[in-house]
Amino acid sequence: MQLPLPQVRVPFSPEQASSFAGEVDALYLYLVAITLFFSLTITTLIIFFAVRYRRRDPGELPRPRAGSLPLEVMWTVIPLMIAMTIFAWGASVYFRLYRAPQEAMEIYVVGKQWMWKFQHATGQREINELHVPLGARVKLTMTSEDVIHSLYVPAFRVKTDVLPGRYTQMWFEATKAGRYYLFCAEYCGTNHSGMGGYVEVMEPTDFQQWLAGGASESAAAQGGKVFQERGCASCHQEDRAGRGPVLKGIFGKPQELTNGQTVTVDEAYVRESILDPHAKLAAGFGPLMPIYRGQLSEEQVLQLIAYIRSLTDDAQPQRGGGAGTVTGGAPSESQRSNPLGPTSPPPPPPRQGAGGADTNTGAQGPGR
Ligand code: CUA
Predict the structure, then answer these.
(1) Which residue, judged by its Cα, is nearest atom 1 of ligand 1?
(2) 160: CA distance to ligand 1 center in Å?
(3) 3, 66, 142, 152: which has the highest count of C-beta atoms within 10 A?
(4) Dist. CA 117 → ligand 1 center (Å)
(5) pTM, 2 dp
(6) Distance between CA atoms of 123 and 100, rounded to whole angstroms?
(7) Is 184 near ligand 1, meaning CB less than 6 Å away?
(8) What is the pLDDT of residues 180-211, one digit of tens each?
(9) Which residues have a Cβ under 8 Å from the Cβ of 175 and sit 6 or more positions away?
């Protein structure tokens, strides 16, 4: 992140290892400071008044007091203003935390009792361990195979629920190499407490090496295989409308439906259209597609999404806009902080000729 971030260290808090950590801690410290200030002030005044105005004579009566308008306005307006600073600051941190940037490294996450499964766009899979490069924006698209889980990385100050039948997203930018705990933060059954692992933040070059060592095909290529195996290609042809719509170039675009409504083709819509295709039919097509609910694993659905997404990314290598205008010379901040984004040179391909439909690099995959 380019913003100057406050570097505040809160005692008893975990290490700060993401671009959000300082900010979240500063907000937290502010809340603690306000709470402490008012607790101390009120306690001190109670004790002071109790002593100062104690009853000195059994027959003593206090003087009657009418209200005071200025006093009432003061104790209404000042707390309101303090509460609004908390609201404004909290909202600004929240929006940046919960709005994933367009150009980010995509990682798919499936939670299940009791493990975390990660798949990188380049195809590597990991269980209970997630390798990410230092200084890159990483976006996780997450779902659950069974019950509600919640992915929590304290050192990054990020936590998001992971729900069955839905995609949730979370993003972060690690600012410090190292190994950090990740937890499940939602009670999900007997071994909930064991559903954890590590995030390994690596120097970008080490990460590239790690990625290259994984030697597997990209998530999109794996999705392409599922697409072929399941016979999707017989109806969804590449260039002309078959029994189903052409999937090339649709991701991220609006899609008109038979009922006249329009939806954006995003992860959630593609997922629904695979598992429950008749729910939102694309305009001009009948309810012919078989229902795949229960036929595909969550990972296969995510791979299919990566594949369908790649059909659009390939057509639009410039996706992400302005940041793509970087020319020679020293790498800009946006390049440095996003070594795998669409504006940067692609990572070494895991294996030459293995599908090649690498999601974010805009590389021209073989036509399907
Ligand atoms: Cu998964 Cu708790």
Answers:
(1) 149
(2) 12
(3) 142
(4) 13
(5) 0.64
(6) 21
(7) yes
(8) 999 999 999 999 998 999 999 999 988 888 88
(9) 16, 17, 18, 19, 21, 134, 135
